[in-house]
Amino acid sequence: MQQLNAFRAEQGVAPVSESAELNAIAQKWAEHEAALSEFEHSSFSCWTYTDCPHEHIAAVGDPTEAIDVWKDSTDGHREDMYYTTSVAVGHGFAKYTAGPYKGMWFVVQFWHDHNEH
Questions:
Q1: Most buried among 5, 44, 102, 106, by the most CB within 10 A?
Q2: DSSP structure string for 12-41
Q3: Mean pLDDT, to the nearest integer, of 6-29?
Q4: What does the radius of gyration of the chain's CA atoms come to, in whole angstroms?
Q5: Nearest-angstrom CA–CA distance, 22 and 87
Q6: Contact by Cβ (8 Å): 63, 87
């Protein structure tokens, strides 16, 4: 949270709060990914994008590495972290020691207030 909100502050964007509900969703998906050694986004059953959290996933040695990688990305992950409509996030972590994605599974769920502009 500190690293994410520090990055948001650098971009001139308000901090996000931590959500227990999003933490539970992210934790469940991190454990799922680690158990199956997959590298896929979760599939929410949503009618529209605005009904669902926005998700980042990473398999890294340390969760701070994921934030650093996303900060340097050119594929949209960087911008996703400082959307002005983001109001809450949840994090999930799961250790995985076998297969191609050894390390820490890290999942972040971003919730957006789509009524904000």
A1: 106
A2: T----EE-HHHHHHHHHHHHHHHHHT----
A3: 90
A4: 14
A5: 12
A6: no
Strand-pairing partners, residue 18, are 89
Residue 65: the pLDDT is 86
State how far the Cα of 83 lies from the Cα of 45, in Å rounded to an integer. 23
Are 27 and 108 within 8 A, CB to CB?
A: no
Residue 48, pLDDT > 50, answer no
Higher per-residue confidence, 15 vs 106: 15
116 to each of 15, 79, 84, 85, 113, how far by Cα in Å? 15, 17, 8, 6, 6
d(CA 105, CA 109) in angstroms, rounded, equals 13
DSSP per-residue string spanning 65-94: HHHHHHHT-SSSHHHHTT-TTEEEEEEEEE
Give the mean pLDDT of 27-50.
70
Complete edge-to-edge strand list for the sheet that includes strand 54-60: 17-18, 86-96, 103-112, 54-60
Alpha-carbon separation of residue 21 from 6, 55, 72, 95, 104 (angstroms): 23, 14, 28, 21, 21
